[in-house]
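If it is no trouble, can you show me the amino acids of a protein and the tokens describing how it folds?
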Amino acid sequence: MKICITSTGPSLDSEVDPRFGRCRYFIFADSEGLAFEPVENPNIGASGGAGIQSAQLVANKGANLLITGQVGPNAYTTLQAAGIKIVTGVTGRVEDVLERWKKGDFSTFTQGPTVQAHAGMRGGGLGRGMGRGMQSRASAPSSPASGESVATEIAQLREQAKELRGKLDQITQKIETLEKAKK
């Protein structure tokens, strides 16, 4: 079994990173041996969709199990669609966590997201616009990359549609507010 553990660094001595989508590293390890591969998370600074993109990375690397601190709804849906089991609420050194897995300490899998969407975002704008600018992060749907499943693409498209509906609601509310102020 191939295990992925979110990590604050590239070694087995590193601590489990409590964030999934914006963790610093992923440690991919074989549950039977001592072989492991650290992968720096390219999505740590993503402006959006870090959970989904990180879940795709984990799936593309062939992981069967994810061990982490927290997982958001977008990442959870994508991981589930890829058939990856999830264990959350884990802390400690990566090496110790692997040993605990081998001993059977983690007997239950996570049944849903453990944080709200965008929980891993740091900071935010300091302006007065409340983040409701007209920029659009949505892009035309793309074909699945090699190794990506159709289920993963469906999960992505559903999330993108949800984000667009939310943006549309915000725009509609702003229009109504401006029209009332104009009268």
